[in-house]
Amino acid sequence: MSFWLPEAVRGSIARKSGVVTRVYTDGACVGNPGPGGWAWAVSGGRYASGADAGTTNQRMEVRAALEAVTSLEGPLEVVSDSTYVVNCFRDRWWEGWLARGWLNKAKKPVANRDLWEPLIDAVRSDPQRVGFTWVKGHSADRMNDLVDRLAVEAARSQRGRSGEGMPEGLGAPDLVPVGPDSDPRVPEGHRLVVAGHRPPALGGYEENTVSEGVREQLRRILAAKRVVNPDLVVLTGLGLGTEQLGAEAAVAVDVGYVAVLAFPSQEQVWPASTRERYRRLLEGATGQVLLQAKAPESKQSAGMALRRRDAWLARHAHEAVVVWDGEDAAVGSQVRSLRDHLGEEDVWVVELHG
User: Fold this and answer.
1) CATH superfamily of domain region 2-178
2) Region 275-289: what's the mean pLDDT?
3) Which of 74, 101, 115, 137 could form a disulfide bond with 62, CB atoms 3.0-4.6 angstroms apart?
4) Catalytically annotated residues
């Protein structure tokens, strides 16, 4: 469990043992985006949940914290399994957002500002009152499991509830557990996804000045990331374009990479000149994850398999670097999905210029 509280709150705890209320929060979404639910609960005390017909998991995580902070009085310790929520205050993302006029590091509008702004205002209004604790999701924590079930119930039924004590008639917890322990194939280390454009947006299938420039940018980013995270490991689908450039950049700075493959023999439909490069990179990977044992029988099923791979990467990464021109809809959708899972401060966009 990772724990962060403002210094003044820690002092208050030391002086007045037992005055801080520990409230657990969670959010859930069916489809992400899709119908969602949020919940908060105090052990042996009050609880509440609510629903939203069209939302995302990250919005529900922030909404749960907002509802808890604005519903409960006195010093609070907000316990969440969302790094998106906890890291905003632990790493003080909000200070940069305010200084930049609600723009993120990429100079883009902060996602979910309509929820972040009132939450940040509530925390700032009394800096000695609220602290945040991260708890690992799906780790047998009784209260984390309780708010998970409340949030999932609200997402599925689109009805909230409130009360005191232990809620009755709760359904099953989230059916899609997240985190490295939910899949034994997830590699250890600080996992960074490299994704983005494919040919011809990168100048074509052969080596060219555009692809060389992208590889060099990725090399510099990975070199800097490795200084901060010595256990850095790159996750790549090894698809044509950015994914392969990311693997080559990892090799250049002596960082291991794991090939996460949507299905076997994906290179069979690629131009012949690209297949040897792919096979060489596949052999050089420090590990392989094959998500589907059978090759797809149609373009539609291949597209679905690739989307499942992208979702797997988003669930199990800590950070992501995406090469994007700001216009391509498919890459833009992947950027939004990664930000929704990881938080926008942990998704780095490398702008592509032709």
Assistant:
1) Ribonuclease H-like superfamily/Ribonuclease H (3.30.420.10)
2) 93
3) 115
4) 26-27, 61, 81, 138, 148
